[in-house]
Amino acid sequence: MSERNLAEEEQRVLAVLSSRRFQRMKGLGHEVPFFIWAYPPEWELEVAAAAGRIRTALQTEQGLTVITIDLFELAIGMLGERGVLDRLDELESRRCKSDFQHDLQRMLDPEKHIAPAIRKRLDAQPDYDILFLTGIGKVFPVIRTHTVLNNLQTVASSRPMLVLFPGEYRQSATLGSALVLFGRLSDDQYYRAKNILEQEPA
User: Fold this and answer.
1) At a CB cut-off of 8 Å and minimum separation 6, what does 107 contact?
2) Looking at the chain, which runs of residues are DSSP E strands?
3) Residue 15 belongs to some domain of the structure
4) Please, which domain of life does this record's source organism belong to (predicted)?
5) Among 159, 120, 132, CA closest to 56
6) Helix-then-strand count for the chain, H and E
7) Is the dihedral of CA 117, 120, 126, 128 positive or negative?
8) What value, to the nearest 5°, has the Cα angle with vertex 76 and ends 75 and 81?
9) Secondary structure element (H or E) that encloses residue 75, with its range
């Protein structure tokens, strides 16, 4: 694989997101407008900063409304609203690791809780143009990326969504597509998203 350059990727992503073709979701057919920016995990902080610059450029230069949803911050907020955030330390001390993880997965179920919470955020800004989904690595393995994306297909498919993914999005004509978190942990198959770096900015 050729050496990757973050500055070049940042400019590529900005160019694609700025294009009218992308914003109008042209060429997707019946596919959902979900796009993955998979990057080396060690780039996490730099990509977060790059995403901030991209968002600012889209808003100031293109006049677009960009919503950023951090899954970790969303999860913390939901646990706080349910009154369980302050009791997590106590719960963790009384439960084995697998049971504690199961408890969190139940409280943060993508279908029952995460997707509806994201829908609520989007409904508050119905005229948004692009959604950035971040915080993927911080919520694994409690929240799995592919289950979130599957449940967002009916929630966030009216506008393009860019998923910032610390790992690899492996695509194969024979084996299908797989999200590989941190480049080593399989997050299971998800075949409907497109690699943002492979999109044409025109």
Assistant:
1) 78, 79, 82, 84, 113
2) 34-39, 66-70, 130-134, 161-172, 176-181, 185-189, 194-195
3) yes
4) Bacteria
5) 132
6) 9, 7
7) negative
8) 95
9) helix 71-81
Q: Is 145 helix (H, G, I), strand (E, B) or coil?
A: helix
pLDDT tens profile 165-199: 999 887 766 556 777 887 765 655 666 789 999 99
For residue 51, give the nearest of 189, 162, 170, 202 by alpha carbon: 162
Q: Report the Cα 5 to chain-centroid distance in Å.
A: 21
pLDDT on residue 191:
64
CB 179 within 8 A of CB 165: yes
Separation CA 194–CA 29 (nearest Å): 13
Q: Does residue 1 fall inside a structural domain? A: no
The CB density around residue 43, as the number of other CB atoms within 10 Å, is: 16
In the chain, the number of structural domains is 1
Kindly give the pairing relationship between strand 66-70 and strand 130-134: parallel
* Residue 161 covered by a domain: yes
Residue 100, domain extent: 6-198
| pTM for this model (two decimals) | 0.90
Question: What is the CATH classification number for the domain harbouring 106?
Answer: 3.40.50
β-pairing, 34-39 with 161-172?
parallel
For residue 97, the one-letter residue type is K
